[in-house]
User: Fold this.
Amino acid sequence: MFDPVIAPSGTLLGLLQRGRGDGTLHALTAPRPEALAALNHCVLRDPRHDWQVENRSLYYARLYLDLHGELDAIEAHLFDPEDVLDTEESRTGLALAVLGHLASYGRRDALELLRRYAAHGTNWAWALDELALRDDDAGLRALAAPVLARFATDAEGEAELAATVRDAFEPRPWRLWADDPRPSVATRVRAAQEAGCFDRWQRQMRPTGPRPGWSVQAVFAWAEQGLERGAALHVPAARCLSAVAGPEDRPEIVRAAEDGTEGARCTALRYLADSNDPDALTLIERAVATGSAPVVEAAVDAFERMRSLAAVDRARGWARRPDPLGAAAGRVLACRGGLQDRDAVLAALREAVRGEGPDAPTLWTLVDGAGRLGIACAAPVLRHIYRETASSHLRGRAARALAATDPSFGTGFAVECLWDCEETTREVAARHAETGDTRVVDRLRRLAADPAEEAEVQTAVRSRIGPEETAV
Assistant:
């Protein structure tokens, strides 16, 4: 999937793509055709940089409800000829998830569309998972025949069916079909379930990778083989070293950390850092200066995992370095530094925004650190990150940091956060938004009564309003 093109944050489309609460508030006051066009654009062209972890589906589904939006555009997208050509889940996953939420709100048209796509669409397994959570038994049983017809009855087809049943995210439909009164359905599904269980048992009996009794060199060789295949194995290899290495092996591991092969060096650095070896910090600094890109990355990651006071002290000395180790030092201080490190964390935060923009991966840790250390001077930078980042998770972290650093948060961003796409951000807003704003009170009541809302959010809401105020 290509990286999405995100519109400017001041536009309706840009707000909706980011999942910001202001997106919903602006859409509800915009001309309805314009709001629906922007909403459909987001649902049909997933705007998330990481669609597997960022939330948008409930956010968009609620807006469809508020706008009384039709589903014609989603239907055309799902059954477009491109559905056969582009089989990536990311093309249709968001649309199907939105339909799932709409079905749970009682939208019959969404339920029927999910059923039809499960029977005929390419990404049918996702649609079936949505239906498994929301459809009745009769609706699911009606899908048994068209779903099973996707699998040939020869050995290859039955093996594919067994793998699908084994790996199903939601097992409910398959369990229903295993008890189906039609022998042609129940027999195939039961056979697939048995074959899947047998395959899982066989894989457990044929483990790959390290074995008891391996030597230190064998572990290093395994890590190196992984690199040659394009798989970074130094993290599990370091855990293996913890099991096989003794005090007498330390000189060999230190030599590997100094000038071993890439796989061995990455593994040794991780092992020494995790065990708080007295030479780990010196070896990490040397690796950053002399190592290849994978070695530098492994060294920096190993350093950031260290919890010792010596690591924090070294971070204070490295924080001004203009290299990956300096950036890592800023993150270490953000996580484990004290009040005396506020200036260093603030400097790292500002430098990251100036140099890499509001979506820089390093900002996640630095933003958390600004909130943890209560750096009031960071509020302007945090507001900028909140407005501009395309990551709804980073925006949520910025909101939490602002709650700890910005006195105006309760009457400002906290209000719009009640409509945010991320439940953790809505939870922060529910705890901090000032109830003097009538929109806040109305929204809190709606969230308290919404069966689709997360329990943590509703708990935060109920801490602000009494039981008699939750009825709608």
Observations:
- The mean pLDDT is 91.
- The longest helix spans residues 183-205.
